[in-house]
UniProtKB/TrEMBL annotation, chain A:
Domain (Flagellar basal-body/hook protein C-terminal) ranges: 89-132
Claim: 4Fe-4S is one of the keywords in the record: no
Subunit (UniProt): The basal body constitutes a major portion of the flagellar organelle and consists of four rings (L,P,S, and M) mounted on a central rod. The rod consists of about 26 subunits of FlgG in the distal portion, and FlgB, FlgC and FlgF are thought to build up the proximal portion of the rod with about 6 subunits each.
Lineage: Bacteria, Pseudomonadati, Pseudomonadota, Alphaproteobacteria, Hyphomicrobiales
GO cellular component, one term: bacterial-type flagellum basal body, rod
Name of the featured protein: Flagellar basal-body rod protein FlgC
InterPro entries to which the protein is assigned, alphabetical: Flag_bb_rod_N, Flagellar_basal_body_rod_CS, Flg_bb/hook_C_dom, FlgC
Organism name: Devosia ginsengisoli
Pfam families per record: Flg_bb_rod (PF00460), Flg_bbr_C (PF06429)
From TrEMBL, chain B:
Keywords: Bacterial flagellum, Cell projection, Cilium, Flagellum
UniProt entry tagged with the keyword Lipid biosynthesis: no
NCBIfam families named among the record's database cross-references: PRK06004.1
Name listed for the protein in its UniProt record: Flagellar basal body rod protein FlgB
Keyword Membrane: no
GO BP: bacterial-type flagellum-dependent cell motility
Biological function: Structural component of flagellum, the bacterial motility apparatus. Part of the rod structure of flagellar basal body.
Source organism of the structure: Devosia ginsengisoli
Primary site of residence: other
Length: 136, 135
């Protein structure tokens, strides 16, 4: 496994965290997306999954974004009789997105991204040292 | 007699190769820091005494005749033998990576590698001095 493989593995890590960030952004943006009519489901929170897979061209285990799963937990409901999507008793179903959880996930994604970036920086420094030998 | 046949250079080259392989494994660990079920891997401590016999031995590689063939010797930690880490803690999703530990290992790996390359450069300088050329 050479330095280029290390760089490519770290790059897949960056890629995975970027994809995760996109899903978090989707969830947060749709935190208030209720249905248009009564009985219509609001936005359902999505969860990114990660998988380790062996990449023969790199010779190591890279990380891949797997299936985007749906969060099957209950929707929250609020009493808003004037809302177009309110049911007979005046309740509107809102997405099962908890901004607090999303914010925490976002932090985690940021930290993991930074860790991968750190690996890239260190690997580049090591490559630089190897080239320094040439300069003698 | 080539440069690589001198014990100092072959030992240092071997150590540098060890650091290179370790960097790859650490990159794997960090990239998969949040993959459920992933357990980290690391190399056993480098020991010059253990490796001495191996300095001159050539590595055996398999030939890849198709793009999908795995290269057996270069993958999976190469000649150094990657082993599963004894993890301090394992999360409920079965992941055994502690990001802080991995970062420490990456930094240590960098510093040790720099030490090895510096020694390599110094050895070359000594050779030059011996040949009477001013570096």
């Amino acid at each position: 496994m050479d330095f280029n493989s290390s760089l490519r593995i770290a790059a897949t890590g960056l890629h995975a965290q970027t994809a995760r960030m996109r899903v978090i952004a989707e969830n947060l943006a749709n935190a208030d997306s209720a249905g248009k009519a009564p009985g219509e489901e609001p936005y359902r929170r999505r969860i990114p999954t990660f998988e380790a897979s062996f990449d023969p061209s790199v010779g190591g285990k890279v990380v891949e974004v797997g299936r985007l799963a749906y969060d099957m937990s209950d929707f929250s409901s609020r009493y808003e009789p004037g809302h177009p999507a309110a049911d007979a008793s005046g309740y509107v179903q809102y997405p099962n997105v908890n901004p607090l959880i999303e914010a925490m996930d976002m932090r985690e994604a940021q930290r993991t991204y930074e860790a991968n970036l750190n690996v890239v920086t260190v690997t580049r420094q090591m490559l630089g040292r190897t080239l320094d030998i040439l300069r003698g | 007699m080539g440069l690589m046949n001198m014990p100092v250079f072959s030992a240092l080259t071997d150590k540098m190769r060890w650091h290179q392989t370790r960097q790859g494994l650490l990159a794997e660990n960090v990239a998969n820091a949040e993959t459920p079920g992933y357990r980290g891997r690391d190399l056993a401590q480098y020991d010059f005494a253990d490796r001495q016999a191996g300095f001159s031995s050539a590595a055996v590689t398999t030939t890849a005749t198709q793009p999908m063939h795995f290269s057996v010797s270069s993958s999976e930690g190469g000649a150094f033998g990657a082993q599963r880490m004894a993890n301090f803690e394992i999360t409920p999703e079965g992941n055994g990576i502690t990001l802080e530990d991995e970062m420490m290992k990456v930094t240590t790996n960098l510093m040790d590698y720099q030490a090895a390359t510096s020694l390599y450069q110094k050895s070359i300088k000594i050779l030059r001095t011996a040949m009477g050329k001013q570096a």
